[in-house]
Amino acid sequence: MRSVVLLLLGAHLAYAGTHSLRYFYTAVSRDIDFPEFTAVGLVDDGQFMYFDSNIMKAVPKTEWIRQNVGADYWDIQTQNLIGAHQVFKNNIQIAKERFNQSKGVHTVQQMYGCEWDDETGDANGFDEFGYDGEDFLTLDLKELRYISPVQQALITTQKWNNNKALLEGKKQYRSQICIEWLKKYLKYGKSTLEKTVSPQVSLLQKTPSSPVTCHATGFYPSGVTITWMKNGQEHHEDVDLGELLPNEDGTFQKSSTLRVTPEEWKKNKFSCVVEHQGKTVRETEDEIRTNNDDSISIGIIVGALAAVVLLIVIGAAGYVVYQKKKGFKPVSASDDGSNSSART
Prior knowledge:
The protein is α+β, with helices and mostly antiparallel strands.
């Protein structure tokens, strides 16, 4: 029997430090089993609002936002996101033309928002766009200009960078309005956002000769570190670290896969170390769980990961932001959550 030690190490308090307010938009170019347009709002990586083009309505996803804002808030969110949906439909067609594409499923994505450190007072804002999973356009807030690694975005960078009013509006939202609303949301959801839930950790394997995955799930907040040890020493070779992904209940999951031969497992003692805020838990398993066990199979988890590839922005996790250009009109003193939209 192979014995693998699972360690859960404590860390600092969850609520202090850097907080974030992020909005993720995703649009797809053709009719598949997924909404044509989705929008998700996140505070500290936890989803608090949702909209898609099927329901055509912005809805709360946490009790704290439901209890602290009224119908006007959701009406404004809904109207702005309906507008964003139409702009995204137009922009995805423009992107296809620029990339000389006429067929296939294509995606445009945007992530924007702000971060604030409640200890130092430091603040930062961001606005990132992508197309088909590749970087497309990014706002350099310090230089107050958009930059892009692809020539297909040149027309947009020139257009937006020449629009000083648009750039100043984006700066005002990210450096001031977004921060103000982030602080409000933190106050609204303090009791929930302060909670700490430790992860459940399992070692999973498809077959006895397959790579071994250390899977941590059910934890909150999202900050977690997964590393491997070999005979008491840190081991970094042949390790594939997965993205942080959301669970339906607002908690998170993350995995790390170690690719070693069965002979290596027999000759050495490997351990998975999961660091999370809260407390220290030590657990030992006599053998790695496989698809033959009654426990959660690695196949299910791999399937979940595949499903999230398209939905990555709906979670709270990967945050590898890829989306097409969607601009922003000057905002009012309310956080409309849409950042508005501009044609490319």
